[in-house]
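Researcher: I'd like a structural prediction for the single chain below. Treat it as a standalone chain; there are no partners to consider.
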Amino acid sequence: MPKATIMDIRREVENCLGKRVKLEAHKSKKKLYQKEGVIESTYPSIFTVRVQEDKRKEQKLSFSYSDLLTQSVKIVLLDENETDGALLVS
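Model: Treating it as a single chain, here is the predicted structure.
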């Protein structure tokens, strides 16, 4: 199976606009955080995910496509009926 390129990853993310995702990102060497949100928008070099912290607080996180390529960020699509779905980029 050929390796994914930045353009392949960008197309996959663009196809998932507006969908709920679970993301796992490395904050530092030893800290990992997991959040659920919605892919909000895509740009040439980055994409944004809107995360609901609590009922009143929303946060917008941005990631580069190379974060997915290097697997420093992992995104799993959430199905409406299930809690776990398919890995966006493998």
